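Here's my example:
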Amino acid sequence: MDRKTLLAFVLIAVVLILTPWYMDVVSPRPQETVNLTEPLPANLKGDIAPSPGATLNRAPASNVGGASGPPAKELVVENGLYRATVSNKNGGSFASFILNQYDRYDSTLVNLIDGVNKNNLLVGFISLDGEQINLNNNWSVIGNPRRINASTSQKNLLFQTTFNGYVVQKKFTFYPMSYSVDLEVVFKNPDRFVSRGEYTLSWNGGLTSSEKNTKDDHTYFTGYAYLGDELLEPSAKENKLSEENQRGQTRWTAVKSKYFLSAIIPETPGLAAVVSGLIEEGRPVFNTTLVQPVSSRRVTLYVGPQDYKTIRSLGVDLEKTMNLGWSIFRPLGRLITWSLTKMYAIIPNYGLVVIIFAFLVKLLLNPLTKQSFISNKKMQAVQPEVLKLKEKHKNDPQKLNRATMKLYKDRGVNPMGGCLPLLLQMPILISFFTVFRSTIEFRGAPFFGWITDLSSPDTLATVGGFPLNVLPVLMGGTMFLQQKLMATPGGGSQQKMMMYFMNVFFLFLFYSFPSGLNLYYSVFNVLSIVQQKYLIPDPRMTGAHTT
């Protein structure tokens, strides 16, 4: 085995070993965060809204009111973008939150609230005698609203409860065509019943899965708290609660799924935050708690899609929750997303947009790829002479190396020139992977026929539980043809083995990738084949041996 073949095998082994690391880079998973500031007090830490079913050594909190409060009542709120149900149960929380512009795989509308996360806006505090109090009784509804239509103007909804005769209120303000909801929590005479002048606002249970591939959706379930510029992001473990808590200026807390997000954003930074995660029956469950001074009343709730433009417009760095890949590729990913969405406004089919985009990228890179392909063909043209040198100096590797490099220099050949197209493509491919896998603009975007979602594999059928995906096979076939055109004549069995191995490896790697990525790569490969085969002169035919 010669040195080049050995090096190639080593590189392939490195790729195989580092593939899991690479996937974590382009699709980062939650990591443990080290507390950098003062932790929460002991009587607050660990007694805030545990995950459902968690087994913890905690002192039980008192649930004020229980079933003895006012009768259960649900109110429907509509604003054009969503149809939400707000219940006076569990302290005045959302019982459902249906998004009008987003469908599930079963053609029903996305609903972000289910039985697991109905305790999503719980108010709690520590009483003057040191007891943890959760105001999760049935609150009274002030007034007699029946159906709240905020489609044309803002509307308010007021809840009220009491603790030892003292009043606590929650006032919701809904706005037309906005995913943001204002919430005011008002404590009357808090110095008479609230310790340290602090209260907590918790979102328990994360969000409901909305995707056909629930397992994939679950990999994106996360809870966050943003303190200063530090992001608390605990991982979720099977039957073991992972918790991050930290004091400091808290700009927001949030929970997310793959494409949707719920965040609590205080008007002024909060005092502390707690974020916990737990896997229960295969489902990651994340809880977040914001600690606020009772004097700070207003928070903004964002419940809706992870749309980059919308989230960034909130001005609190909430886009840090979005899976945009490794930071070095994020600007390119945003550029690709912007370009595709602008083209979609003219051509309302993202499949066609991807094909056209591949043409445009090919045109943009043509000057560089053309020189690379010419260099490769020159390499092919001089191979008969290289083979003669190998035969002549077969017993003297040093002379062979010197003679080969002199030949390349005399013929104007760059041995590494053929690698340029792949190097140029890698940042684009990585960005495409992130864009189509995690960006909501392409969620459920169809092309034609069986390709109904460019953000998922294009499964034509399933045989014995194995999905038959067409585009990865097409990508692998076009990649093989391109490599065959670039192959050096007389490369022998080792070169063929390497070619087959690399194609099998890439087919395996890309098989479960989004169909939008495989469509782009396939089209780009076809264009490269046409360029190599028909548009670039062959030095062996023209007699051009020099640049």
